[in-house]
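Q: Joint fold for the lines below.
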Amino acid sequence: MKERKIRNMEEFAAISGVSRPTVSKYFNDPESVRKTVRARIEAALDKYDYRPNIFAMDQNRRRTKNVGIVVPYLADPVFAEIARNLERRCIEAGFRATLFSSHGEQALEVEALDRLRSLRPAGVLLAPLGRLSDRDTIARFCAEVPTVLFDRDIPGVGEAFVGSDNMSFVLQSVEYLIRTGEPPCFFEMKNPSNPNSIARRRSYAAAMEGHGLEPMVIQVDGEGWGLEQIGYDGAMRALEQRALPTDTVLCSNDRLAIGFLAASYEMGLRVGRGSGCALRVAAHDDHPLSRFTCPPLTTVGHEYDLVSNQGVEALFELIETGGRLERRTETLFPARLVLRESA
Amino acid sequence: MKERKIRNMEEFAAISGVSRPTVSKYFNDPESVRKTVRARIEAALDKYDYRPNIFAMDQNRRRTKNVGIVVPYLADPVFAEIARNLERRCIEAGFRATLFSSHGEQALEVEALDRLRSLRPAGVLLAPLGRLSDRDTIARFCAEVPTVLFDRDIPGVGEAFVGSDNMSFVLQSVEYLIRTGEPPCFFEMKNPSNPNSIARRRSYAAAMEGHGLEPMVIQVDGEGWGLEQIGYDGAMRALEQRALPTDTVLCSNDRLAIGFLAASYEMGLRVGRGSGCALRVAAHDDHPLSRFTCPPLTTVGHEYDLVSNQGVEALFELIETGGRLERRTETLFPARLVLRESA
DNA sequence: GAAAAAAGTTTCCCCGCGTAAAAAATATTC
DNA sequence: GAATATTTTTTACGCGGGGAAACTTTTTTC
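A: Joint structure:
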């Protein structure tokens, strides 16, 4: 079947009896060459299985079919899930997606953007690190490469932003918790890596005040992305010291809540809204595993599909209009309350 | 600060008053040029912040500093964690790591290898899909590109394999469970995507027989990578029908166990090894969240660090010896029993 | 300060391919 | 079968940079 190795398009063209530019045309669009020629190429193709070097191709194209996707931390299942969705949609739309994770480090985010620039992508979907981002570098990048920000906004940077409305997240959870029991205290990291956290804390305070209630914020120590551990440690301390001002805890995000639930379980505190339960715990994000916690976690979920959809739609529109939008668009999706047993 | 844009090395060389080959040399190793020249280049560098196009660079190098990493499913936290480790180590060793996820699809695995080939990597770390892999394509790829397989072996393919010893996993868990209580039944998917599962089932049977016991295997339906859901559904059915032959359940992997624990909790069955517990549940992999399940999951863990270490070491050695090893090496690490409260 | 060594410059060709323009070959039309 | 339209081939250049060879300049050595 496969005979000898083909090094490049020149060789392949010679072997298939067609000129190189025609072969090039074929790989750009097989329908664009006459069918007798196509047959010759395809005959050679399954005899020698040659494939053009995509980076050499892209180097010279007017517009590549590359799309870059950058997320701040791929080991976080929420981002893993979003990235997988985005990648799938880009591929379906005929693009070649390249995924980068900043792994929580500014240097890696910068490096990712640098490699992306070399790729000459048609467009980029970027979820910045946030607090840790090098704003200038990102702004310069966005000035060169058509970019849609998602998840976390950097005001004025990029052609569009798509994300979830953190205000809506917290309004829903707070409203629900107040309506069905004691008002919640808010459980979060003192120095969150995630800037969305700050928006959520503010929204919590606003929501409580809107109900004529005093905000109660519990801030726990810890750095980095080991959120479950941080949540666990903080919860253990709070529970041991009986420092909770109420029986209802609203965590800034699900990963903290997973740690909180583990601590509650260890302390023998039953979590849930039924009688005999000592605590109610709710959170935000609808982490892929939140449905499988014990008890299943009541949370306010991202509309992943909507954000992904709108993100890629915005990107495709951006690409079609030549990379620049008349004015920056910002799309915020309201969140969806997911009632489970924990609150 | 940043004045006008530099398009290529030629322009940058002109502007910095140095010849292009010297600039090229500088970017390959800043120490390789005289310090007066280096100063000129660096002066221009922070004035115009030019960076060479990495793909153009790699196109022509003898040996690139690229390393490819391919994992079967990045939304699985276990692989996300491994990938992050590998990436970090490669970067520390001065390589540029590029990460691909096959997302559980053969077509994407093939595509990843194709793009990798175009990258001309010095070496590749590949965790194949397994059952779903296109063996021929992978074999052909490995014949061209120095490759170390990890996690899942494809016998005879690639220059080396590094992974965990599934036999050791299961031997440890079975031995422990038998020693401390009832012998375990084995809970797994009927048609696992993951070929390691098959090795684990066999090891379970062998271990039980080694103790003079009859293997008890529970196979649940379900396809794909939503393992927690599959574990949950299967556990619900088994628990409702009281189909468990013993009070001790050994799950093929932690993700199934997470679903199992959720089902147990919902059924009001207390899991653990203490009195008053109805079930013991253990599993394999030491998933990042297993420490935070309720109760925390007793599991047999990968030595992530050892596998990562050995994987990159094998790769670096492979790269240094010019891409081929005299004979294929296979490294299996024994697993580490992680005792928690679930069993 | 002259000779030797080291580093930089010029000049060319290479990687693997896109693309444009002009010339040649095929297909289509009547 | 001639005229026209459509494809393909030829030729040539570009992308952004690696690398070798021959030559010139700078630095080091004694």
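Q: Anything notable?
A: The first strand of chain B starts at residue 66 and ends at 71. Residues 18-22, 25, 32-34, 37, 56, 59-61, 118 of chain B lie near DNA strand C (CB under 10 Å from a C1').
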